[in-house]
Design brief:
Length: 711
């Protein structure tokens, strides 16, 4: 069986599609607001397509689209003109359609009659629901969905489907003034001259016959819906940013809005918020993606990292399961609620990732430096220790000190690092590496996990754990710089293959190694030079694979494209090792790219050189909004400010190196510990007001975390 996680790349979306997102629910429609069957369009709730067809006709004719826009992530507005009965386009009937997504779908439709005569309208809304699992839709396997049964009630059309495991999914449609039929809803109305007619169409999901606790209703004011309430609370909670450079200000504000739209909520823990990987296909918790995105967005809301860590901790592996690749202490790669996921893997979580587990530990350590509640940190320490045990007992498959991956089944991911496409790991000549594979950046994350756990132990006065983890970190760093450094290349190998041979392609992964500090000081200049070379740096960002490698393709998913999060982490690494000009150049390039994408960086874009194309070339199936990409500008702002809090040592480092073109920077309402601070900076000077008591402001960059661990 081909599992739901077999293809990590997003499916193709039609040009001009409009996507609306709220929590883990989303809707993809055409420019008119209509949803046509046969493709990816539809409304999705808990990974099930609850609307696969939604087509509005007035007097038997379609609408002429005028405009479509997304005022918020969870809302879309469409305006169109109805055709006259004779097919003319000068109809006096204008259709305004407002769509909200959340625990189902609510569509408010208003038809305005601008003529001086009464308009008689026959309105039919063709609706259907195939109740297909998200991954069956993505993989073109919608025929595998259970047979849907339609039942017409007095006021509602019910569509339900059963599955072999006893699960039932369904949806109930209704509309004020609408008569339900098996084909949809019909209306017969007369609209007086210079007047209007309005209705609300509601789709309520059914899970085993039950409705959500807060479904849409016709009478509930939209500003009272959960999505709107959460959006308003988010806007009040996040920093208020002003930058003299209008583009940078717009990009940072858009990043905050996108991160807000990608939050997902656990009804069992109302106060806990995690971050989903991206819209539309990855509106779910992803171990690696959610951890990296929440790390990069700490300046916006440290609570995202806390909620992500707490949620992952509850899903941490406890047994060995070959199908789901669960192992004791392992953190999940992906969590899904659809029926197909359960049928394929016997559960909702898939664990096939090599990096989420060490990233859990390092993110927890970083969060402690931001003054998070000590109770939360302490409650997660047992999970961190189990994660380290997994690294040593299961991650290190052969006892050589490195973490390797190899799927134990035929349906899991072949590659289990962040470049998880089937052809993402290859040698310089283009030959693909064979598993077991030890990735360079995974060893770096493991190093960061050991360092982070040592620092947590130091804060707790646990000298035994501190010493043990510090020793493991030192040993791993020495072995890494030995085995992953081909002496004739001048850069780190991408990986070690099944024969412990260095996979010698020049890839962006070594930028992650700079980020966490595993690179020896004498090798860092060569890594920096290679990252900034014409083969790697496009002028917009860093290619995933150098242009002189055998597998290079600027329009591939992982072999030559530019990923904003990857580039931002490399820039962070360059800044860490003192390559200030290089890091600033990368930041400027990525902010310039964001301007061409309307202020919203996509998941990835093509790796063509800036000298060859005046604008970054979009990648056709990139997710947008996407958590990594949304968090990347926040991380870039942080490194340009060199803003580094450390509550464990009672200091806050602020040593700006803002480009002159950026001008004045100000961020109000930044959460640090339990205080709200204001950051102001220009050039190389900066101030902080509202500093928490006992925290000393220093104007020097943060020293390497590991500086005094290995004395």
């Amino acid at each position: 069986m081909t599992a739901w996680n077999a293809d990590p790349e997003a499916g193709t979306s039609e040009f001009g599609a409009v996507t609306v997102v709220e929590g883990s629910s989303f809707c993809i429609s055409g420019h008119t607001g209509d949803i046509h069957g046969g493709g990816a369009q539809g409304a999705y709730y808990q990974d099930t397509r609850i609307v696969s067809r939604w087509i509005l006709r007035i007097n038997g004719a379609f609408r002429e689209p005028l405009v479509a826009r997304n005022p918020t992530a969870f809302q879309a507005e469409f305006v169109g003109r109805a055709l006259s009965a004779d097919g003319r386009f000068d109809s006096p009937l204008v259709v305004q359609h407002q769509r909200h997504v959340g625990s189902g779908l609510r569509d408010d439709i208003t038809i305005r009659n601008y003529s001086g005569q009464t308009a008689t309208c026959g309105i039919d809304l063709q609706i259907d629901a195939d109740l297909a699992d998200l991954f069956d839709v993505k993989g073109g396997r919608t025929g595998k969905a259970g047979t849907a049964v339609k039942t017409v009630h007095k006021k509602e059309l019910h569509i339900e489907s059963g599955h072999p495991n006893g699960e039932r999914r369904g949806v109930a449609f209704r509309a004020s003034g609408g008569k339900p039929t098996e084909e949809g809803l019909i209306f017969h109305v007369s609209i007086p001259a210079r007047s209007q007619w309005t209705t609300s169409v509601i789709a309520v999901p059914l899970t085993n016959g039950k409705r959500p606790s807060e479904p849409f209703t016709e009478t509930m004011p939209l500003h009272h819906t959960p999505g709107v309430r959460r959006h308003v609370a988010w806007e009040e909670h996040v920093p208020r940013i002003s930058v003299a450079d209008a583009n940078v200000e717009e990009v940072l504000e858009r990043s905050q809005r996108d991160l807000g739209s990608l939050r997902i909520f656990d009804p069992q823990h109302p106060g806990r918020t995690a971050v989903a990987a991206g819209a539309p296909w990855f509106m779910a918790l992803f171990g690696r993606d959610s951890l990296l995105a929440s790390y990069m967005s700490l300046m916006v809301d440290p609570g995202l990292a806390a909620g992500t860590l707490q949620t992952l901790a509850e899903l941490q592996g406890s047994k060995v399961d070959v199908d789901s690749e669960e192992e004791p202490g392992r953190m999940p790669h992906e969590v899904r609620l659809g029926v197909t996921a359960g049928l394929a893997l016997g559960g909702t979580a898939y664990y096939g990732t090599a990096d989420a587990t060490p990233l859990f530990v390092s993110t927890l350590s970083e969060l402690s430096r931001w003054g998070l509640s000590a109770d939360i940190i302490e409650s997660l320490l047992p999970n961190a220790d189990r994660a380290i045990t997994w690294m040593e007992d299961y991650g290190d498959r052969d006892g050589d000190g490195f973490i390797e991956y190899q799927r134990p089944n035929e349906h899991g991911l072949v590659n289990q690092g962040w470049k998880d496409s089937w052809d993402g790991i290859n040698f310089a000549d283009g030959t693909m590496a064979e598993t077991p594979i030890a990735l360079a950046e995974v060893q770096a994350y493991a190093y960061a996990a050991y360092v982070g756990r040592a620092l947590l132990a130091r804060s707790a006065g646990d000298t035994a754990v501190e010493r043990r983890c510090a020793d493991r970190a030192a040993a791993l760093k020495e072995a890494f710089n030995d085995k992953f450094w081909p002496p004739d290349k001048g850069y780190f190998a991408l990986a070690l293959d099944k024969d412990k041979k260095a996979v010698d392609s020049c890839a962006s992964n070594m930028g992650h190694c700079l980020w966490v500090g595993i690179v020896d000081e004498d090798k860092a200049p060569m890594v920096a030079e290679r990252l900034m070379s014409p083969e790697m740096f496009t002028g917009w960002g860093i290619r995933t694979l150098a242009s002189d490698m055998g597998a290079y393709n600027p329009v591939s998913y992982h072999n030559g494209s530019v990923w904003p999060h990857d580039t931002a982490l490399a820039a962070t690494g360059l800044m860490r090792y003192g390559f200030v000009k290089e890091a600033s150049r990368i930041a400027s390039g990525l902010f310039d790219a964001a301007e061409h994408f309307g202020g919203q960086l996509p998941e990835l874009f093509c790796g063509f050189d800036r000298a060859d194309f005046s604008q970054p070339v979009p990648y056709p199936t990139a997710c947008s909004p996407q958590a990594w990409a949304a968090a990347a500008p926040i991380q870039l702002a942080r490194i340009l400010l060199r803003f580094d809090p450390d509550f464990t040592r009672n200091v806050l480092h602020l040593a700006p190196i803002l480009p002159d073109s950026l001008g004045e920077f100000r961020a109000d309402n930044v959460l640090l510990g339990r205080s709200r601070i204001t950051i102001q900076a220009s050039g190389s000077s900066g101030t902080v007001t509202g500093l928490p008591a006992g925290l000393e402001l220093r104007s020097d960059p943060r020293p390497p975390l590991t500086g005094d661990l290995f004395g």
